[in-house]
Amino acid sequence: MNIKSTINGVCFENSMGIDLGLTFDCGQCFRWAKKDNYYIGTAYGKTVEISAKDGLIYIEGTNETDFRNIWAKYLDLNTNYQKITQEISNLSPEINQAVKLYSGIHILNQEPWEALCSFIISQNNNIPRIKKIIESLCENFGQKISNSYAFPSAKTLSRLSVEDLSVIKSGFRAKYIIDAAQKVVSDEINLEKISKMPLDEARKALMTINGVGPKVAECVLLYGMHRLEAFPLDVWMKRVMETLFKGQKPTIFGPYAGVAQQYLYHYSRMNPEKFKD
DNA sequence: GCCCAGGTATAAA
DNA sequence: TTTATACATGGG
Q1: How long is the CA A171 to C1' B11 vector, in angstroms?
Q2: Which entry of A74, A76, A112, A161 is 20 to 30 Å from A221 by CA?
Q3: A180-193 as b/e, with b when 16 or more CB fall inside 10 Å?
Q4: Which has more confidence, A229 or A207?
């Protein structure tokens, strides 16, 4: 990829066609805030501002080294999404339409621990409040980095009590966060190893954490471990379509099809009439 | 007040 | 194995 340094960051041609709004606001991540003409967010302990203009993507607050080591991977800039979306398009007219509308979504490479915590917090919750709780978690227990806060480590959170966590108002989820942190610190849960396990084994391991069920496990695998390859796309798609046509939300996440899932999620929200019986 | 939110643990059928 | 209910909190 051809990148250039700017005064306080880098810029590069948006040849992969990433759509920042769709990518950051589709529900896969919770720490990006939309400003006037850019998104500001924190990942891997670094805060940056990302914007798109005239076919270029600008990342402010970074350098070429961090771009290559962190942001190119985080934003999944080296995956051929155009090829994926073509495959998806052939599956059905609905998917084809959805792909047209939402073809700039990238599945991010988020940190496994952050994804695990975030999706524990997401259960029986809504996105604005999920974001608030996570921001509060970072402000109260994360390391300060300039004007922002890193996501707190498992080690930090493992020492907290439910009362300590009451400041973030996560409700009944507090005990789950602490259990996850303690299992990670004791190495009973090794996210690095789990990320390389066969899918069913990995899912089983994640679900030994109190408060992690099939849905949270899928989100961690998909968004925190980038296990996009693990499900056959057609099998997953069938599940989602069946769920949608039953009038329910697609609550089980998939593969590589995470891409398609995101399309479908948006598509079903934007065109609810098409998904009524 | 009542209902719901990208669910899960628990008890009971 | 499948089905009902509570769970903390805040917004509509």
Answers
A1: 22
A2: A161
A3: bbbbbbeeebebee
A4: A207
Task: Copy the structure tokens of residue A271.
Answer: 């065109």
Question: In the 137-166 stretch of chain A, whose C-beta falls under 7 Å of nucleic acid strand C?
Answer: 166
Distances (CA, A) of A207 to A165, A196, A201, A202: 22, 16, 10, 9
Q: Which amino acid is at A28?
A: Q
Question: DSSP string covering A91-132, please?
Answer: T-HHHHHHHHHSTT-------HHHHHHHHHHTTT--HHHHHH
A122-175: pLDDT as tens digits? 999 999 999 999 999 999 999 999 889 999 999 999 999 999 999 999 999 999
Neighbouring CB atoms inside 10 A of A174's CB total 23
Through-space separation of residue A44 CA and nucleotide B10 C1' in angstroms = 37
pLDDT score at A267: 64
DSSP secondary-structure letter at A153?
Answer: P
Q: Do the beta carbons of residue A140 and residue A254 sit within 8 Å?
A: no
Q: Which of residues 79-118 of A touch strand B (CB under 7 A)?
A: none
Residue A171: CB less than 7 A from any atom in strand C = yes
